[in-house]
Q: What sequence folds into this?
């Protein structure tokens, strides 16, 4: 099976206050396959969110290559990014911060439909409401503002907006970590349902190994900008090969498996 995303020797550099650069992501390589849920875990500051931002071209790569359906998108800019965002979308940790507070949720969800040519002229409001329903929200949420909804509801709306262009890939960057446990389970249930019904591939960045164990097919462990381990969730959590991966697993309290709630 050919990968839908391939990352080759990716490096991303940041500059410290002293103007010295350092590698936040250092020679990272991996593939994402169609229909797969790929987890990326590691301690805070290990580079996992930087990988996500580089994949979506929010920050530049210093070296290496990023390939989407075999096409090199490493240095794509401007209008050509639309083709990338039609296929790959991102869901952030704090959904309210990713919405314009002066726009209704419906207007924000309609934007990618208009900007990327995914919407049908004169039918945008219907499509917005269908996306809301798909993500477990009633149609009236289209008229609400971000400050008028709960964190879980706002994240559902953010997922609806991410689905608007009809992507093949969702990158979830700590998409549940700002939510309480019950709402986390509901959002995980939604993502599982969307994966199955919409045929999505997901990159799931998370520090909660219990969620990773239940949800992911394969897991990458990052430490200090590098991938230090790769395997199934059980391999990475219960039989880690490296000391750093072992310490990460030992620091986590794994909750018992639970049924996702829609």
A:
């Amino acid at each position: 099976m050919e990968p839908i995303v391939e990352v080759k020797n990716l490096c991303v550099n940041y500059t410290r206050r002293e103007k010295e650069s350092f590698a936040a992501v250092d020679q990272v390589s991996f593939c994402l396959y169609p229909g797969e849920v790929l987890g990326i875990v590691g301690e805070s500051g290990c580079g996992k969110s930087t990988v996500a931002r580089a994949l979506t071209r929010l920050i530049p790569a210093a070296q290496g290559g990023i390939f989407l359906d075999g096409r090199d998108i490493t240095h794509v800019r401007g209008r050509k990014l639309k083709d990338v965002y039609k296929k790959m979308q991102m869901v952030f940790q704090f959904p309210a911060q990713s919405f314009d507070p002066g726009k209704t949720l419906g207007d924000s969800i309609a934007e990618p439909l208009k900007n990327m040519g995914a919407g049908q002229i004169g039918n945008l409001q219907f499509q917005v409401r269908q996306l809301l329903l798909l993500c477990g929200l009633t149609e009236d949420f289209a008229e609400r503002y971000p400050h008028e909804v709960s964190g879980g509801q706002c994240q559902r709306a953010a997922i609806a907006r991410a689905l608007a262009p009809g992507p093949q890939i969702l990158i979830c960057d700590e998409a549940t970590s700002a939510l309480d446990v019950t709402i986390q389970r509901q959002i995980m249930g939604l993502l599982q349902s969307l994966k199955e019904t919409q045929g999505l591939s997901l990159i799931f960045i998370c520090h909660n190994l219990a969620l990773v164990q239940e949800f992911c097919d394969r897991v990458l462990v990052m430490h200090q900008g590098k991938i230090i381990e790769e395997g199934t969730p059980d391999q990475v959590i219960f039989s880690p090969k490296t000391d750093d991966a072992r310490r990460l697993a030992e620091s986590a309290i794994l909750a018992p498996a639970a049924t996702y709630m829609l």
